[in-house]
Amino acid sequence: MDFASQNEEKQYKKWLKESPFNTVSHEVFNHAIPSEDELLAIFRKDKEFIKDKHFIPFQEFYAETFIPFLPQNLSDEQEQILSTLTWRYIAQKIEAMNKSLKHAYDMLDKNETQKAVDIIKALAEAGHPEACYLIAAFSMQGQLVPRSAETILKYANKAMQFVSHPRSNLILAGLYNEGYGVERNPKKAISLILDAERHAQEDPTVYPILAEYYQDGYIVGRDVEKAAVYAYRSEGMK
Q1: Residue 189: predicted pLDDT
Q2: What are phi and psi of 176, to 5 degrees?
Q3: pLDDT at residue 71 in the model
Q4: How far apart are CA 111 and CA 103, in angstroms?
Q5: What does the pLDDT average to over 198-213?
Q6: Residue 147 CB-half CA count within 13 A
Q7: CA distance linking residue 202 with residue 206, whole number of Å
């Protein structure tokens, strides 16, 4: 294979190891393997997309190569591996995605809201968890994105597809507590909040929200001791 440089070769080998074309994928899915030249072309296209801040969802990016060769009905093992491959594909781009998200925040500060929302939507479609949460939150508030139960459910669940995202739990808790677009289910709402608590250390920004919920008795019963604990932890974030 003709690489432009030793650095490109090194990057390509890392990309290939983490891509759907790795050894494990070949063994499990037994799909048609693109030629070496085709793989190098896919790698270069991926790098160009990242450079241009153009993040494409896993299924779309591999639509012409990997996806058509998947079995129609996947086994549990295949589903699990496909999920792992999807997250690896997203994780390869997280650093670049985070930079784009920061740019979107900067535009929000400058009141360039539509441009900011367009970037966040693109990141959410590509699977960035925080961007997914933001779209769900905007929709829940009916600000920047129209209020829609379908949108809230889609993106809040997508935010939690590969990682714990406690704030998304809280959004869904509000949805089920209200019965907005779903059958009202207070027990499920409480369960979602308790799950957010279990993962709170992974996302400390949820502490002040939990403190407020327990202080006011929103969805969960009022518990001033818990409210004080979460308020104290919130102070530790400053």
Answers
A1: 97
A2: -75, -30
A3: 77
A4: 12
A5: 94
A6: 8
A7: 9
Count of other CB atoms within 10 angstroms of residue 124: 24
CA pseudo-torsion sign 24, 30, 36, 37: negative
Helix residue ranges per DSSP H, 65-178: 76-91, 94-109, 113-125, 129-141, 149-159, 166-178
For residue 72, what are the contacts with CB-CB under 8 A and spacing of at least 6? none
Dihedral, CA atoms, 177, 181, 184, 190, nearest 10 degrees? -30
Q: What's residue 238's pLDDT? A: 60
The whole-model pTM stands at 0.90
Whole-number pLDDT of residue 65: 81
44, exposed or middle or buried, with CB in 10 Å at 0-12, 13-18, 19+?
Answer: middle
Taking CA atoms, 82 is separated from 21, 75, 89, 159, 165, in Å, by 11, 10, 10, 17, 21
* Largest Cα span, the chain: 66
Please state, as a whole number, how many other Cβ atoms lie within 10 Å of the Cβ of residue 115.
13
**Over the stretch 32-91, which tens digit does the pLDDT of each residue have?**
667 889 889 999 999 999 888 889 999 899 888 888 878 788 888 888 888 988 998 899
| Phi-psi group of 181: left, alpha or beta (phi > 0 → left; psi -120 to 50 → alpha; rest → beta) | left
